[in-house]
Amino acid sequence: MIDRFSWMAIYPEIVLLVMACVITLVDLLDRNPRRMAAYVLSVLTLLVLAVLTGTYALGGQTWYGFEGMVVSDPMANWLKCFAALSVAVTLVYARTYVTGRGMLRGAEWYVLSLLSLLGMYVLISANNFLLVYLGLECMTLSSYALVALRRDHVTSIEAAMKYFVLGAMASGFLLYGLSMLYGATGTLDIGGVFKAVASGQIKHQVLVFGVVFVVAGLAFKFGAVPFHMWLPDVYQGAPTAVTLMIGGAPKLAAFAMTVRLLVEGMLPLAIDWQQMLAVLAVASLLIGNLAAIAQTNLKRMLAYSTIAQMGFVLLGLMAGVVNNSALAAANAYSSAMFYVVAYVLTTLVSFGIILLLSREGFESEEIADFAGLNQRSPLYAGLMAICLFSLAGIPPMVGFQAKLSVLQALISTGLPSYIGLAVFAVMMSLVGAFYYLRVIKVMYFDEPLSTVPIQAPFDMRAVLSVNGALLLILGIVPGSLMALCAKAIVQMLAT
To answer: In Å, how far are 87, 240, 341 from 351, measured between CA atoms?
Structure first.
């Protein structure tokens, strides 16, 4: 018999699935080419989900459902809340863009976005290898379809093919690694894996072999080097609205998947997977920042920027266990969570501005397209500047606080190797500042190439302004978000 806690643990998933089906049916009766009914229902659904999961998170309770396969804890619920808000903001930013590019022949854009979020929700709450894989496939298969949504656009179809082939390979890596762990431990439950590994009765070599493949699969979802090949091509080739959809909220799900598998499932093997994360982080910071310098396409530059940003997240995740002691775990993992949330918030602004400047027949994705933006609209130039300063880690933006929290987590370990990694990360951030400041220079000091007025719906202008203001406000007073992340991680580790 399924108890009430099982149903309470998956209420958000139930609401999301039901509303995706409802929106599909409503669209059959909607003759409006702008699909306003699907748009309004989707945004309202996401706002309700954000309130529901936020209420769960504030309650501070942890529920296990369906024989422990699902977990609903504060970390999961806060990540679900942020993911719902991220997708809602994306839909608001993308409404004009998708309408003008023939992507609303039906409600596929909205339904696939909700189904992708459903995959994220399952992934975030998964406490079993089967659910991890189920959530991952639901999220990625929806993403493949979204990238190919412009069926008459050759570049988008090419990007979808690359994403699908490389994504299938990464899923294979992850599945093979999970099967190795199942074969070694005899259980699919993440908690059971932890107990089996901690018992010390399983051959270390078999476990490490499985961990290598799991880390490779996780690195692909983060876009970490050397599993980054898909990221620049997909970011550039996909419609900008889809680029934002796959570049924002899924990073929250990737973080949750990494914590579930590596921290909750394989913390006794931290000495092994932390070394792998260190290599991935160093390579991502180096190649991401150096490759971004050579880019003239802004979306491609932001893709390499993402690779470098994920290097910081990996640095936070690798600082949790020091000398076989997990005392620093809460500080390290909460800094990584804070970094991911700050990154998603910043990504929404950057691609929101690109979507705002795009018009029918013109994508506005080259750096040169931003020339003289300050003369055309000081507001939008200011918002983009705030975003770029945050990505560069310049105070008082939230990106600075995010980088500082990760660096503090590394330095507080007291290990010379970790302090060396912190120094290396700072040096790479200085390199990265160049290509961010280059865009600001173009916006403020170059002559505008176009005099076309910048027009945007009221809802997009309002949300974009609030989004940009949060980058500044959370940079000046980051305490509440940091405390939220710290409390969520502490409660997760306690259970």
So the answer is: 13, 7, 16
CA dist 166 and 480 (Å) reads: 39
For tokens 């004009």, the residue is: 96
Tell me the per-residue pLDDT of 369-402, one tens digit each, with 9 for 90 and over: 888 888 888 899 999 999 999 999 998 999 999 9
Half-sphere exposure of 446 (CA within 13 A, CB side): 17
Query: In this structure, what DSSP letter does residue 73 have?
Result: -
How many Cβ atoms from other residues are within 10 Å of residue 188's Cβ?
A: 19
Instruction: Find, among 161, 137, 310, the residue nearest to 237 by Cα.
Output: 161
3-state secondary structure of 451: coil
Does residue 1 carry a pLDDT above 60? no
> Any idea which of 23-27, 224-228, 451-455 has the lowest mean pLDDT?
451-455
Label residue 445 exposed, middle or buried (CB < 10 Å: 0-12, 13-18, 19+).
exposed
With H, G, I as helix, E, B as strand and everything else as coil, classify residue 359.
Answer: strand
Domain positions in the chain are 4-494
Indicate the SS3 state at residue 64. strand
Q: Coil, helix or strand for 334?
A: helix
Cα–Cα distance, 159 to 87 (Å, whole number): 21
Q: What is the SS3 string spanning 107-150?
A: CHHHHHHHHHHHHHHHHHHECEHHHHHHHHHHHHHHHHHHHCCC
- State the Rg of the chain over Cα: 22
CB 69 within 8 A of CB 190: no
As beta bridge partners, residue 325 has 322
CA pseudo-torsion sign 360, 364, 370, 371: negative
- pLDDT category of residue 9 using cuts at 50, 70 and 90: confident
- 456: nearest Cα among 172, 160, 185, 94: 94
Whole-prediction pTM: 0.95
**Main-chain phi, psi angles of 70, to 5 degrees:** -120, 140
